[in-house]
Amino acid sequence: MTTRILPAVGDVDAARSVTTLLSQLPDAEPAAPVGDSTQLIDTLARLAGESLDELPEVVLVHERIGPVPALELIREVSLRFPAIGVVLITADVTPGLFSSAMESGARGVVTLPLSYEELVNRVQSAAQWSVGVRRHLSTGADVFTGPGGTVVTVSGAKGGVGATVTAVQLALAAQASGRSAALVDMDLQAGDIGSYLDVQFRRSIVDLSAITDISPRVLSDAVFSHSSGLALLLAPGDGERGEEVSDRSARQIVSALRSRYEVVVIDCGSQLQGASAAAIEMADTALLVTTPDVIAVRGAKRLVRMWDRLQIRKAEETVTIVNRFIRNTEIQPPLIEKITGTRMANTAVPANFKELQAVIDAGRLHELDPKSTVKQALWGLAGELGIVKIPDRPEKNGAKSGGMFKNDRGSIGRPRGRRDGDPRNRATTKGAS
């Protein structure tokens, strides 16, 4: 049996040493090393999207991999790709490290400097375990094996730009289209998703922060099942308790949610904390909400630059949405795109707060009128981001197929394309005129 091995080694010298030894292993098919945690997860997700059989049997994780720490990376790989045997390469051979590696999901530990005998034993053991798991999965067992659900983070350029409203409507759009969706309030000190949706619940994200192994049952106990169908993970009622949610626990929580729901929308607020930084780094899409005014655009630029300096996310990997857009404003989306260096969404949300005021005051944002131009724009954004399921329906009497949402016939669900090939032509709803 040929064993496919994917090394994740950031250090050039260590990568060369690992590659040399792997090439000597019997029946081994080593792939080219990946240099960081992001590249590793992206590679595995791409392979898993093609087929379970495309995944390597063994992944080697070097202790100095980054930016995600090695043990946290092992935990994420184990949660998202449980059919892979992960082996840690480390110079620390203490019992504490070995125990932590096993708790994270590693199938073995190889000590530095590398020896041929130890490496072949650990790789073969992990490969045999992987083959056994895949044989079990092939019998039809109900075990999560895919690359995981889509994670979208929503951040505000500053307070009050509409990040929470955007997050709520994106999650509602995904749920209404037939996808299982979770909405997470990671604005840990000032989160108010519960107020927007009229929810009072004793559990919050803090209850998961101290748990090292978040099982489906533990997760379900902390999640509130909303009448709209959304699964809500709320911020703590006491803002100071938000400090209990570390970046490590945030990664575990996001990974657990991703393995259970098709779409996970996370409201990160406008203040960067360790937990929200970890979520933004892990996200498939990082959405930045701004308004077309000087202060908000400066805030967006400052936030994007901070993400880049902290190696959380590059500007070009961020999507910016303009809220409260008016056609005759001096600050237009192309200018914001140029200032921030981010990619602008095709959709812009019109300035029409009077549509929102009644449902916000009543805590019933999920009951926003389907004819609302704000709702149509935000649900159109959900389609653009690819988090809604567009039903395939045959055309009848010349009518267009698709775009129909469960319990909400008046909303928009299809991605909006650019017109005339001009990347700066932005599609807006008629309410923006």
Description:
With 433 residues, this protein is of the alpha/beta class. It contains 15 helices and 14 strands. The chain has helices at 12-22, 37-50, 70-80, 95-104, 116-137, 163-176, 193-196, 206-209, 216-222, 247-258, 274-282, 294-309, 333-340, 354-361, 373-385; strands at 3-8, 28-30, 58-62, 85-90, 108-111, 150-156, 181-185, 224-225, 231-233, 263-269, 285-290, 318-325, 343-350, 427-428. The strands form two sheets. It has a nine-stranded mixed beta sheet with strand order 8-9-7-10-6-11-12-13-14, with helices on both faces. Strands 2-1-3-4-5 form a five-stranded parallel beta sheet, sandwiched between helices. A hairpin with a 5-residue loop joins strand 8 (224-225) and strand 9. Helix 3 (70-80) runs parallel beside helix 4 and helix 10 (247-258) runs parallel beside helix 11. The longest helix has 22 residues, at 116-137. The N and C termini lie far apart (64 Å). The model is unreliable at 140-146, 394-404 and 409-433 (pLDDT under 50).
Q: How many strands appear in the DSSP assignment?
A: 14
What is the CA-atom radius of gyration, in angstroms? Answer: 23 Å
How helix-rich are the residues, as a percent range? 25-40%
Strand content: 15-25%
Shape: elongated
Keywords:
single chain; 433 residues; alpha/beta; 9-stranded mixed sheet; 5-stranded parallel sheet; 14 strands
Quick overview:
This protein has helices at 12-22, 37-50, 70-80, 95-104, 116-137, 163-176, 193-196, 206-209, 216-222, 247-258, 274-282, 294-309, 333-340, 354-361, 373-385; strands spanning 3-8, 28-30, 58-62, 85-90, 108-111, 150-156, 181-185, 224-225, 231-233, 263-269, 285-290, 318-325, 343-350, 427-428. With 433 residues, the protein is α/β, with parallel strands linked by helices. Strands 8-9-7-10-6-11-12-13-14 form a nine-stranded mixed sheet, with helices on both faces.
